[in-house]
């Protein structure tokens, strides 16, 4: 029994590690959300992000039915798989498991991370954090990466937590050992500031999804990063 458990454990680590190897040291973390788009479907947005060589994409839909979210995620899983792109599902662990996503991203008020780890032990688990205490707790509880935000004010997320974004990010970059992703109000116009405060991964919804030409937008943003 113990042997089985160990074997399973090392398989998990191997899988997580091999997935991470595909990620560059610094880049954009794309997040989907059709309601913020200029009339494009999540599938179209995914294809444009992949065309721009985005390597990690999260599905985040707050207003669709479970069935519609499942259909979207089944299609996106296929496209991301053939393109070696990491696919993370926000919040809906049942959908993440059903489509065999690479990971699940949860918030402070979603299912507790301890439970998520039990249910989805071989998945990458991301946890949103909004202050130092939450970031330290996330590491202690075994999150694979944390979201750090909101960096700036944004209307994309309802009930935005209070957060001294840039200084929290700086603190995380100096004190937290696991990967972290800056989020909240990040745009082409301010990404250089986020980078200056220690940002390595930059999650964006409206700036990407709302663009007429997502590939062009990503290329412009990258010019500020490299
Ligand atoms: N989480 P945009 S801020 C989904 O602070 C989300 O945890 C946040 O959207 C957090 O790039 C946010 O359009 C919204 O500002 C990000």
From TrEMBL:
> One GO CC annotation, please?
cytoplasm
The pathway to which it is assigned is: Cofactor biosynthesis; thiamine diphosphate biosynthesis; thiamine phosphate from 4-amino-2-methyl-5-diphosphomethylpyrimidine and 4-methyl-5-(2-phosphoethyl)-thiazole: step 1/1
- According to its UniProt record, which cofactors does this protein need? Mg(2+)
The yes or no answer to whether the keyword S-adenosyl-L-methionine is present is: no
What the record notes about the co-factor is: Binds 1 Mg(2+) ion per subunit.
Q: Record-annotated residues binding 2-[(2R,5Z)-2-carboxy-4-methylthiazol-5(2H)-ylidene]ethyl phosphate?
A: 154-156, 185, 205-206
Where 4-amino-2-methyl-5-(diphosphooxymethyl)pyrimidine binds, per the record, is at 58-62, 90, 128, 157
Picking any one GO biological process from the record gives:
thiamine biosynthetic process
| Known EC number | 2.5.1.3
What positions does the domain Thiamine phosphate synthase/TenI occupy?
A: 29-207
Q: Name one GO molecular function term.
A: magnesium ion binding
The reaction(s) catalysed by this protein are: 4-methyl-5-(2-phosphooxyethyl)-thiazole + 4-amino-2-methyl-5-(diphosphooxymethyl)pyrimidine + H(+) = thiamine phosphate + diphosphate; 2-[(2R,5Z)-2-carboxy-4-methylthiazol-5(2H)-ylidene]ethyl phosphate + 4-amino-2-methyl-5-(diphosphooxymethyl)pyrimidine + 2 H(+) = thiamine phosphate + CO2 + diphosphate; 2-(2-carboxy-4-methylthiazol-5-yl)ethyl phosphate + 4-amino-2-methyl-5-(diphosphooxymethyl)pyrimidine + 2 H(+) = thiamine phosphate + CO2 + diphosphate
Arranged from A to Z, the UniProt key words for this protein are: Magnesium, Metal-binding, Thiamine biosynthesis, Transferase
* Residues that, per the record, bind Mg(2+): 91, 110
What job does this protein perform?
Answer: Condenses 4-methyl-5-(beta-hydroxyethyl)thiazole monophosphate (THZ-P) and 2-methyl-4-amino-5-hydroxymethyl pyrimidine pyrophosphate (HMP-PP) to form thiamine monophosphate (TMP).
- Which family does the similarity line name? Belongs to the thiamine-phosphate synthase family.
Designated name of the protein: Thiamine-phosphate synthase
Task: Write down the species.
Answer: Paramaledivibacter caminithermalis (strain DSM 15212 / CIP 107654 / DViRD3)
Q: Which gene encodes it?
A: thiE
- Of the parent protein, the shown chain spans 112 to 337 of 337
């Amino acid at each position: 029994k113990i042997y089985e458990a160990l074997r399973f454990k090392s398989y998990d680590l191997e899988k997580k590690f091999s997935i991470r190897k595909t990620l560059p040291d610094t880049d954009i973390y794309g997040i989907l959300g059709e309601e913020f788009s200029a009339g494009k479907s999540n599938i179209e947005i995914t294809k444009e992000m992949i065309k721009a060589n985005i390597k990690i994409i999260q599905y985040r839909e707050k207003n669709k039915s479970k069935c519609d979210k499942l259909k979207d995620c089944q299609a996106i899983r296929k496209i991301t798989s053939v393109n070696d792109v990491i696919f993370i599902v926000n919040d809906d662990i049942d959908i993440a498991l059903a489509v065999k996503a690479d990971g699940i991203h949860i918030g402070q008020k979603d299912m507790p991370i301890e439970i998520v780890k039990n249910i989805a032990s071989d998945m990458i688990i991301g946890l949103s954090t909004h202050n130092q205490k939450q970031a330290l707790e996330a590491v202690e509880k075994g999150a694979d990466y944390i979201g750090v935000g909101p960096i700036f004010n944004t209307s994309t997320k309802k009930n935005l937590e209070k957060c001294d974004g840039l200084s929290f990010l700086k603190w995380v970059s100096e004190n937290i050992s696991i990967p972290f992703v800056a989020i909240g109000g990040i745009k082409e116009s301010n990404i250089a500031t986020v980078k200056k405060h220690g940002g390595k991964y930059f999650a964006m919804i409206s700036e990407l999804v709302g663009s007429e030409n997502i590939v062009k937008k990503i290329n412009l943003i990258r010019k500020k990063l490299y």
